[in-house]
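Quick one:
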Amino acid sequence: MKIFVVKTFIVALAFFIVFELTISSKIKLAKENVIKFKEKSERIKIKEKIFKEIENANNKDQILSENDRLILSEFLKKIQKELSQ
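Output:
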């Protein structure tokens, strides 16, 4: 019985360590990103960055590559087809 308890403790400890090193760090990172969006100043920064990127894209001759154009074109056609039904 004592060996079972020791082995169970070791397995539980190993599981906890692996969890903390892998999944827990990802959860903390996601949580920090969500908390960041609660602040109005961060949302304004992101909005400004999006508009700046749109402005940069408008200044280019071609925004999309040939492959991107084909994929988006097919997608939009499917959406239009579903909306017209």
